[in-house]
Write a structure and sequence with these properties.
It contains six helices and three strands. The protein is mainly alpha-helical. The protein has a three-stranded antiparallel beta sheet. The chain starts with a helix and ends in a 5-residue tail after the last helix.
Length: 147
């Protein structure tokens, strides 16, 4: 019994190290530790769009970097705040994705949570910049015109 437990531990450790080594060689960030603890070793970084690891790739696996100033200027919010938020949330990658601890997704330039997708993008991931902007404006307005 003790030998079986030790063998299982070693196999599991090797599998985790293999996942980390594979992702490191691809130039990506490792999956979230909670995903590993839950046994989710099938996470993908979606070609770098989901650096924390995602079970699926709602915006695909190719990057789409955009000009933050150009997209923020399309609405009358504080431009400096908008650009700061966009850069921090998505790195200006319109195809950026994040799978949250509870399993929900944030996508696009403004990282719109899937809770809002039905109301602002017909239930689909708002990956294209125009749709993501429309969703960001909706979320901004629903929040009382504040970030």
């Amino acid at each position: 019994p003790k030998q079986s437990i030790m063998q299982l531990f070693i196999v599991t450790l090797l599998a985790v190290l293999c996942v980390f080594a594979t992702m490191s060689s691809a130039g990506t960030v490792a999956v979230h530790p909670e995903n590993l603890l839950q046994g989710n070793l099938t996470s993908s970084t979606c070609g770098g769009n989901c650096p924390g690891g995602c079970a699926s790739c709602p915006c695909g696996s190719s990057s789409n970097y955009e000009d933050a100033a150009k997209w923020c200027a399309k609405y009358s919010w504080n431009q400096a705040n908008c650009q700061c938020i966009m850069k921090a949330e998505s790195g200006t990658n319109a195809n950026a994705a994040n799978q949250n601890t509870g399993g929900s997704y944030d996508v696009g330039l403004w990282q719109i949570n899937d809770y809002n997708w039905n109301a602002c993008s017909s239930g689909k991931a708002p990956c294209d910049p125009s749709t993501n902007l429309a969703c960001a404006i909706d979320v901004y307005n629903w929040g009382g015109k504040t970030w």
